[in-house]
Design brief:
Helix 5 packs across helix 6. The chain has one domain: Glycogen Phosphorylase B (Rossmann fold), CATH 3.40.50.2000. The chain has 199 residues and is an alpha/beta fold. Strands 3-2-1-4-5-6 form a six-stranded parallel β-sheet, with helices on both faces. The chain is globular, with a radius of gyration of 17 Å. Strand 5, helix 7 and strand 6 form a beta-alpha-beta unit.
Length: 199
């Protein structure tokens, strides 16, 4: 498929929101994936906030996106209560086409295994996807698997007591603790590597 045609056809709705900053590198953080029973894909909210703070301190323009679930609205409140930081909070504000437009305009997306990961992949936008409970080779953004944060095999051994060679193709790690294996520091390091920044 010629995804460049798709990217060029998307209206620039993000300009209306003033979310992007032409003087900075822009990063979308979409913290939440739709939760299904015993399907744990979301990083702790405090870690996402720490990631956003550090990126903001480094001079990046951080934009939050998401839907209207209770968890996302609770996180939205947490953002609003954070003093000293001017994050662009678009959680619950964008239609799908507006989200696509915004993602097409930014330098990087950070998210769990979710829709925004695949949107960024389709649009040719760098995406750091966070994996701890599912195999990125099965569900990940195929053009950006090399920059994903991947703790799946580690957690297979820890929680399922299996090596990758012994697991079924679609096997998931069903522990709510698995996402805790992802560290803020490794996400920040990957952002710097992907965007060729040093601090």
């Amino acid at each position: 498929a010629n995804w460049s045609i798709l990217k060029e056809s998307i209206p620039k709705f993000s300009d209306t929101f003033g979310a992007t900053n032409i003087n900075k590198k822009n990063i979308v953080i979409s913290p939440f994936s739709g939760q299904r029973l015993r399907n744990y894909r979301n990083l702790d909210s405090s870690k996402y906030l720490d990631i956003a703070k550090q990126l903001s301190d480094f001079g990046f323009n951080v934009i939050f996106t998401g839907a209207n679930s209770k968890a996302e609205q609770a996180f939205k409140s947490l953002i609003q209560e954070t003093e000293g930081y001017a994050f662009n909070d678009l959680i619950g504000e964008l239609s799908l086409i507006e989200l696509m437009s915004l993602i097409s305009c930014v330098d990087l997306v950070i998210c769990p295994d979710s829709g925004p990961s695949h949107i960024a992949n389709a649009l040719g936008v760098n995406v750091i996807t966070l994996f701890a409970t599912s195999n990125p080779k099965r569900t990940g953004p195929y053009n950006y698997l090399h920059i994903a944060i991947n703790h799946y095999e580690e957690n297979l051994r820890r929680y399922n007591k299996k090596g990758i060679q012994d697991a079924s193709w679609g096997e998931r790690v069903r522990s709510p603790e698995a996402m805790n294996s992802i560290r803020v520091s490794e996400v920040i390091a990957q952002v710097k590597k992907v965007l060729n920044e040093s601090y």
